[in-house]
């Protein structure tokens, strides 16, 4: 039986989502708790990878089990086993071929910049107090929607087959003492959002013109783009699927 489990986590003390040989990750912590609950090895597949220190307010995983899972009481039991900075929010039965990663239609991220020191936002935002031209940053963000090749914002050493992404939305908004970058796309490259934010901040500081920003995209060269901003402010906020993926017949197909 295959299930999707909706989870969220504070990524501060983890080396990203995906299991690594010599580092503690969210997936490792989650697999341990789920294996204890099921009394069998649980191998999960996530909707995507988040890097060290990155958070998720919504992430989906899928898992195959030999025993049926129910929202109650298994959700309560699973959360009792999970660390305090990881929560399971829902358990959803899905078709046997449903895939948390490959069936995702779009993913959304937010990058949160704290405009003044706030102890309650420590590890959950990037403190940056220099003035930024948000209007110029939004003009540059709009340019992203006209392109599909984002090689310039990808980590140099990565195992993807191509660097093409379709960005559906990219904009900055003020929310109190936070400046938040919203971006939604069909897929993201490793390090892509943090590199985009770092480059847009160069525009906001008037160190890079709109024409220069477009030249960065055309260069397909990571060294032409801006710095990668710290992970603290990055959140995976939404993963969207076709609703039919959650429809399962009596045979689980």
From TrEMBL:
GO BP annotation list: tRNA pseudouridine synthesis
Keyword Cell inner membrane: no
Residues at the catalytic site: 51 (nucleophile)
Highest taxon listed in the record's lineage: Bacteria
Catalysed reaction equations from the record: uridine(38/39/40) in tRNA = pseudouridine(38/39/40) in tRNA
NCBIfam families per the UniProt record, alphabetical: hisT_truA (TIGR00071)
Protein family (similarity comment): Belongs to the tRNA pseudouridine synthase TruA family.
Functional note: Formation of pseudouridine at positions 38, 39 and 40 in the anticodon stem and loop of transfer RNAs.
Protein name: tRNA pseudouridine synthase A
Gene label: truA
């Amino acid at each position: 039986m295959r299930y999707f489990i909706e989870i969220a986590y504070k990524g501060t003390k983890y080396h990203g989502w995906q299991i690594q040989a010599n580092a503690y990750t969210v997936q490792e912590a989650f697999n341990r708790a789920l294996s204890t609950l099921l009394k069998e090895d649980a191998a999960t597949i996530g909707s995507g990878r988040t890097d060290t220190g990155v958070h998720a307010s919504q992430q989906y995983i899928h898992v195959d089990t030999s025993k049926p899972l129910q929202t109650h009481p298994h959700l309560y039991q699973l959360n009792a086993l999970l660390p305090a900075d990881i929560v399971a929010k829902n358990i959803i039965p899905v078709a046997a071929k449903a895939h948390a990663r490959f069936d995702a239609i779009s993913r959304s991220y937010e990058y949160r910049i704290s405009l003044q020191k706030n102890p309650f936002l420590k590890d959950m935002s990037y403190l940056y107090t220099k003035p930024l031209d948000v209007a110029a940053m939004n003009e540059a963000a709009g340019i992203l929607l006209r392109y599909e090749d984002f090689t310039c914002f990808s980590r140099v050493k990565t195992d993807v087959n191509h660097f093409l992404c379709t960005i559906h939305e990219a904009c900055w908004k003020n929310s109190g003492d936070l400046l938040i970058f919203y971006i939604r796309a069909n897929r993201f490259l490793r390090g892509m959002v943090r590199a985009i934010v770092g480059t847009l901040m160069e525009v906001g500081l008037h160190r890079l013109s709109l024409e220069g920003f477009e030249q960065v995209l055309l260069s397909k060269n990571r060294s032409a783009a801006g710095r990668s901003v710290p992970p603290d402010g990055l959140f995976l906020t939404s993963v969207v699927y076709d609703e039919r993926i959650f429809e399962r017949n009596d045979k689980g197909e």
